[in-house]
Write a structure and sequence with these properties.
alpha+beta, Cytochrome p450, 11 strands, globular
């Protein structure tokens, strides 16, 4: 059963019209130092991430509560947060008049600036900071200037991916999608921004591994490797107790910086025209290419494959019929054709709803404020850190029917009205990123690339099957079978 768009609208309208009295925020932080350690162990090992939040939501009978968020001591000096887990309270994190977004990209800790060439890149800046506007405009200009190249280039990269995937499936009986997707994603990003293939530059085919290393050392305090219990204590000491020294990733970052600095000359020229120093522009470019673009694709594409595979042959048949008929009527894979594929668009939105590429949002209260859940209002004081867990906000049963299920048709027709509750991009799906907000500048690009991937799959294949899995950050998908379409080349 698909969601009724009126269900969520009526619930939230009713909660707005019947303003409840202020209620004290339940929960707490425990003893200094030891309370944060206990919460960290619960989060990573004793309960796991999802149960960590569910347990406290049941305990306090509230979707808003206080807790310590990892990593805590000694990586983060202050782990205390106020958690928001419902669709009604979550959007306060988008309101930069109420919350400050300075240095909160990774939560309660800030990675060393040595990871970014000594610069606070745009993602760590609050919109009130003077550099934010010009740096985000720089990102917009990069995307706009390459708008016409995106679809044909990505289709070309996907063609190369499917050739390798088919060969591997034929020779081994299975094909691990993540590694192939990572390599394809890096190739696409590098070619988009540098106008040449990676093997034409000094990093050759190693780019995805270089980015993986750089991302790991920054984000290690937020992840667990899924080792056996015997290694939990050792992992906690190594990953969560002290920051990993940036010099371990320095050589990899320098190779990436050198490659983009030497090959993305037109983009860096554009940046200088905007008044940005060339070295600062290049460090921001590496971050956009590696963290935002490559990092986003690294988590999003396997999730897309996993969830679409779970839809089974019936959904696959419906997608194939829509995609092939629209492509035929429009005379190719055009932007108009992509926009006319209502089910394909809905499936992409549903994947982003149920497994967003970035599950966390943080912001520090700029003023005393009242934040409302469906059932209560809570006072948050200036300076308190607010944390939102996006998967729960987008699986809110007060908004979505069958919220834990993947429903491919959820956003078709009247269901489009529910897109205002899809928050994956640090903003509503119905909003647009601007230089004055913190919504992902590549929001529309992510949706577009996911649609193109589905189009390329179902122009070639009737159905497919995968083994899904979990990774420290995101999901994995291993192809077990591919059934070619009768007319597929």
């Amino acid at each position: 059963m698909s969601s009724s768009p009126f269900h969520g609208d009526q619930i939230l309208k009713a909660s707005r019209e019947n303003a409840p009295p202020l209620k004290e925020i339940p929960g707490g932080y425990g003893a200094p130092f030891f309370g944060a350690i206990k919460d960290r162990l619960d989060y990573f090992y004793n309960q796991g991430r999802e149960e960590f939040f569910r347990h406290r939501m049941r305990k306090y009978d509230s979707t808003v509560f206080r807790v310590n968020m990892p990593p805590g001591p000694f990586v983060a000096s202050n782990p205390k947060v106020i958690v928001l887990l419902d669709a009604a309270s979550f959007p306060v994190l988008f309101d930069t008049s109420k919350v400050e977004k300075r240095d909160v990209l990774d939560g309660t800790y800030m990675p060393s600036l040595d990871y970014f060439g000594g610069h606070r890149v745009c993602a760590f800046l609050d919109p009130s900071e003077p550099k934010h506007t010009v740096l985000k405009q720089f990102v917009f200009s990069m995307l706009v200037s390459r708008h016409g190249e995106i679809v044909p280039l990505f289709r070309n990269c996907l063609s190369e991916l499917f050739i390798v995937l088919e060969d591997e499936l034929a020779s081994k009986g299975k094909a691990y999608f993540n590694t192939l997707s990572d390599k394809m994603s890096f190739n696409f990003v590098f070619r988009l921004f540098c106008d040449k293939k990676p093997h034409d530059a000094s990093i050759e085919a190693k780019g995805s591994k270089l980015f993986d290393s750089w991302l790991f050392f920054q984000l290690a305090p937020l992840m667990t490797l899924g080792l056996t219990k015997a290694f939990n204590f050792l992992e906690d000491i190594l990953l969560h107790t002290f920051p990993l020294p940036p010099f371990l990733a320095k050589s990899h970052y320098q190779k990436l910086y050198k490659a983009f600095n030497e090959n993305a000359t037109s983009i860096l020229d554009e940046a200088e025209g905007l008044g940005i120093r060339r070295d600062e522009a290049c460090h921001n470019l590496v971050f956009v290419a590696g963290f935002n673009a490559y990092g986003g694709m690294k988590t999003t594409f396997p999730a897309l494959i996993k969830w679409v595979a779970s839809g089974g042959e019936k959904l696959h048949r419906q997608l194939a019929n829509e995609i092939r008929s629209v492509v035929e009527s429009e005379g190719g894979v055009t932007l108009t054709a992509l926009d006319n594929m209502s089910l394909t668009k809905s499936v992409v939105y549903e994947v982003l709803r149920i497994e967003p590429p970035v599950p966390f949002q943080y912001g520090k209260a700029k003023c005393d404020m009242a934040v409302r859940s469906h059932d209560a209002a809570f006072e948050i004081k200036k300076g308190e850190m607010i944390f939102g867990y996006q998967p729960f906000a987008m699986r809110d049963p007060r908004v979505f029917d069958n919220p834990e299920e993947f429903v491919g048709h959820r956003f078709v027709g009247e269901g489009e009205r529910l897109l205002k509750y899809v928050y994956w991009s640090n903003g509503r799906e119905t909003d647009d990123p601007t230089a004055g907000n913190k919504q992902c500048p590549g929001k529309d690009l992510v949706v577009l690339l996911c649609r193109v991937m589905l189009v390329e799959i179902f122009l070639r294949y009737d159905t497919f099957d995968v083994d899904p899995g979990k990774l420290p950050l995101g999901s994995s998908a291993t192809f077990k079978s591919l059934t070619k379409a009768p007319t597929s080349n």
